[in-house]
Amino acid sequence: MATQENNDDRIALLQGTLDLLILKTLLLGPCHGQGVARMIQRQSEDVFLVDHGSLYVALQRLEDRKWISAKWGVSENNRKARFYALTPKGREQLAEKAGEWRRLTRAMGLILDASGGLGEEA
Amino acid sequence: MFRQKRSAKDFAEEIKAHLELEADELRGEGLGADEARWKARRAFGNVRAAGERFYLRGRWVALDKLWRDLRFGLRSLRQTPGFAVTAILTLALGIGANTAVFSVMNAVLLKSLPVSDPDRLVYLRTSNPPRGTGTIDSNETFSYSVYDVLRHEGRGLSPVMAYVPLSGSKVAVRYGAQPEEAEGDMVSGTFFSGLGVNLPLGRGFSEDDETNHAPLAVLSYNYWTRRFARDPEVLGKTLYVSGVPMTIVGVAAEGFEGVEGGGSTDFWIPLQNRRELNAWGNPPQDGKLYIADSTWWCLRLIGRLAPGASRAQALAQLQPVFQTAAYVGMGGAPMLGEKPPVLSLADAKSFPGYEMDYGRPLRMLMAMVGLVLLIALANVAMLLMARNAARQREFSLRQALGAGRGELLRQLLTESLILVTAGGTLAWGFAQMATRLLGQWAQIETSLAPDRTVMLFTLGVLVLAALLFGLAPLRVALAGKAELALKTSAATSNMDAGKSRTGRIIVALQMALCVVLLVGGGLLIRTLQNLKNTPLGMDVDGLVVFGVKPNIPSLAEGRAFYLNLLGKLRALPGVESVTVMEERPGSWWSDNSDMRVDGKLPDVANGASRTVRSNVVGPGVFSTLGVPVLAGRDFADSDTATSPYVGIINEEFAKRFLPGVNPLGHTMGTDDGRYTMTIVGVVKNHKYRSIDEEPIPMAWYEYAQIPMVGAMSVEMRVHGDPLAILPAARKAVQGLDPNLPLIRPMTQRQQFDTTIAHQVLFARLAGFFGFLAVVLVATGLYGTLAYRVSLRTAEIGVRMAVGARRGQVVWMILKDSLALTVAGVCLGVPLALLVGRALTSSLYGVKAMDGTSYALAVAGLAVVALVASAVPAGRAASVDPMRALRTE
Fold first, then answer.
1. How big is the CA angle at B360 (ends B355 and B364), to the nearest 5 degrees?
2. Which domain holds residue B16?
3. Same domain, B563 and B676
4. DSSP per residue over B440-462, as a string?
5. How confident is the model at residue B262 (pLDDT cuts 50, 70, 90)?
């Protein structure tokens, strides 16, 4: 499999979060795969490491589910690229998944914070 | 949904675009062109893995894999065509035979009557008829008066329906100009509505039709197809039944051919009340038709349980009504000491007649083909195991190259699927043919077309076979671990001991089954020979017989008709002699009654039967039949209505009722004392009803002297081919009455053969299946031995290199199969004894323990074993030691 250099400050993406990130990125407008990868990396302040192979499989999966649509186009620097855009169904999914995610992180936060300042000591 | 929307190429394109975009961007950040491209690639990771994941994403993969497996399976089967053909043919024969026999069994024994809600239908049965009645069947037939009371007062059943044939066999009909014969029933007006039979064309009968004895007819779908080419214009046309015009008003649903098994009704008419259409085609008894004659129990009854009534409730309500009705017109009550008849209700879900006629033989056949199937399945499984053992290196190699157990299993299952599909398809075609032939031979006229049950049965067998064939070889395939691929082939011959033990056990078991089938087939074929060679006591060669049913209003006219007919037929060229008789020999029919001898019922020693079979015959009957007259004389033209009444008896009659005296000159008479005849002749015992009967007392009367002139059979002894006389005879008959067909014309030999038709069919099929088993066992044995020899090539080479002679090598191989044969025989003979005992009632002139049959079966098996071993043994003996060793 792909060997990746292991930068300490980067985290491999959690299973299932990639879909959410892609949808969120596409909310800003149609974009090609490379752009999506870049944007995720940049917006997470380089914390997330996006495995490009997985990204494309995920894009295809979302396309198969009709959450995003795709068509070939030309990038700003005149390269041929496949552009992805959010479908209405994708928008619904984004809202739903984002809500789920917030509930999850809130619950996680409650538990972790309640244990009495373990985070601060580290 | 299953459309593959995006090609792998498109995906690769996208990744290429990604890499370029990424490289652009990196260059923008200040990297050199090469470094940017390299870094973009590194950041992406494994491009090919991504492509693969894209490819695997689809649901298509499973189908795609199956397709690849199929192609692979076909390719590997094509490499061994001998194996593939043998396996497929074996399967086709085994499964085909099962499907065929099951089709017949399903149609005959398992299928329900094609009526609505058959579970609520019941046949009416009686324990016995009241004393002083005549019956068709002492348990199954009732008088019209019983029917009439039950249908009005029998509230447990709604309705009660009666049906009765117009003749014991077929009745004369005419549509257009040509007279012909067909099977017809008279039925209640409620018959079609009560049974719930649909009429796709026209209408059924109403109760008014019954009351008015309306001249209407409904055709069976089969008859409509066969005779009228499904012409819808047939409604309203006239069908003459025994010369009486009937208007065709309907066609019954396809598949409905009456509610009795054994025959198929061609048409139905409402219950009639006229001389030409008396029940069973009988002449009126004492001037009374079946409707007026309470002492003739001739109607069959079927009923539908009244809504909400259980069978027990219905019976409880009907019983007293029936027991009163039984004596209507017969004094109203049982005679002193007479046991009154008891009504019972029998399931009418399927044909009871079929169960009686075909139940046992069909179940036997089913068991036999079941054994054949076992042998066939075992054979193919063994062939597969042998083949896959030979492919062990292939499997090992594939495992070494990373194929999982799952993949191997899938491949084996696919191969077995191919075999089973091909075999199954062939089997289905084969079964269709076999079923049709079976139906013809057995003279089963019900439709035998396979239905859903048959298809499910076949499918079940096929699935079983596919699983068995897929799983059995898997053990062998997996036994060779991956590392085996790296070893030499000598390793394989070591591995082999355990597996081939299984193979040997299977062959021995197959041989045991083969012995069972051979013994069963042998016993039945000897039965067949015995039946065929049974002396009939008469000279049937040159005899032809046919029936005529003239429309005769009076006895005198009847006598005149037959006198006239005899004269015309005797005058035909090539005719030696002609006579008439009420019942033709070999038809299963007979008149049975007690008789008076010298004015009283004869005393018989220790309760032996007093029953006498009688027949009404014409002049010269015994010289025509070729039955020797031992004492006295034959009937002659000089015996007439006005001359003294005379009778003739057989040896058995004389022995039982007139022992130790000269019977000539003694008298015999009917039970009721109305007719008395002087015995003028004694004839040799001969077969009368059927080939396999035992001699029983018989008596013959002259037709001119007994008031029983209706339908008769004509026997003609001719020179040359007996059937060649029929056109001339037909002309002579129709010269007297153009409405008369010849009824069931055939040679007397054929007539007798009909009485053993079932046994003949059963024996032939059993023989055939025995033969099939032998062929299958031979292939199996050959396959196993040939395989074992091929594995032992190296060993044989070594043996020969160190000085073993050819004879020794051959013996080594033969010893192997002889051991198997002995084991098979030891196991098979006790099994065969059990089967023989089960067959006892189907045997004739041969005992279940018949030594010859057993000896022949064992010898047959030994021959098969030797022949099957000869080729592999020969091959072993011709092994070239050097070459054998070099193959290592």
1. 135
2. 1-58
3. yes
4. HHHT--S-----HHHHHHHHHHH
5. low
Q: What tokens were used for B23?
A: 């490289």
Q: Answer yes or no: is B450 within a domain.
A: yes
Q: Which of B18, B19, B26 to mutate to test the interface with A (most CBs of A within 10 A)?
A: B18
Report the complex ipTM. 0.79
Is B707 in a helix, a strand, or coil?
Answer: coil
Residues 53 to 92 of B: which have CB under 8 A from any A CB?
Answer: 53-54, 57
The answer to whether residues B10 and B123 belong to one domain is: no
Whether the ω angle into residue B585 lies within 30 degrees of 0, i.e. cis, is: no
Tokens representing B318 are 């009907």
pTM for the model stands at 0.63
Q: Is the pLDDT of residue B487 over 80?
A: no
Determine the longest span between alpha carbons in chain B, in angstroms: 142
Cβ–Cβ < 8 Å for B604, B638: no
**B265 and B152, same structural domain?**
yes
pLDDT of A18 higher than 90: no
Q: Is A75 on the interface with B (CB under 8 A)?
A: yes
Please identify, in words, the CATH class of the domain defined by A12-113. Answer: mainly alpha
Exposure of B749 by Cβ count < 10 A (0-12 exposed, 13-18 middle, 19+ buried)? middle
Of B311, B334, B349, which closes a domain?
Answer: B349
Last residue of a domain, one of B9, B27, B58: B58
HEC profile of chain A: CCCCCCCCCCEECCCCHHHHHHHHHHHCCCEEHHHHHHHHHHHCCCCEECCHHHHHHHHHHHHHCCCEEEEEEECCCCCEEEEEEECHHHHHHHHHHHHHHHHHHHHHHHHHHHCCCHHHHC
The answer to whether the CB atoms of B14 and A79 lie below 8 A apart is no
Domain boundaries, chain A: 12-113
- Kindly determine whether residue A53 and residue B53, on different chains, have CB atoms separated by under 8 Å: yes
B52 touching A (Cβ < 8 Å): no
| CA distances from residue B558 to B275, B283, B549, B550 in whole angstroms, order as listed | 14, 11, 10, 8
pLDDT one-digit tens code per residue, B828-886: 999 888 888 888 877 888 888 888 889 988 998 888 888 888 888 887 777 777 776 66
Looking at beta carbons, which residues of chain A come within 8 Å of B15? 56
Question: What gap in Å lies between CA A96 and CA B490, rounded to an integer?
Answer: 66
| Tens digit of each residue's pLDDT (9 = 90 or more) over B142-175 | 999 999 999 998 888 889 999 999 887 788 898 8
For B795, list phi and psi in degrees, rounded to 5: -60, -45
Lowest mean pLDDT among B88-97, B219-228, B584-593, B697-706: B584-593
Using the structure block, give the residue that is written with the tokens 């009688």.
B614
In a domain, B785, yes or no: yes
Rounded to whole angstroms, the Cα distance separating A83 from A86 reads 10
- The mean predicted confidence, pLDDT, of chain B is 83
B64 located within any domain: no
Q: B49 vs A4: CB contact, 8 Å cut-off? A: no
Give me the number of domains chain B comprises.
4
Q: Quote the CA–CA distance of B92 and B450 in Å, as a whole number.
A: 17
B343: nearest Cα among B358, B359, B324: B324
CB pairs under 8 A between A and B: 67
Q: Indicate if B307 and B361 belong to the same structural domain.
A: no
Q: Which two tokens stand for residue B800?
A: 């020969």
Residues B315 and B362 placed together within one structural domain of the fold: no
CA distance B30 to B10: 31
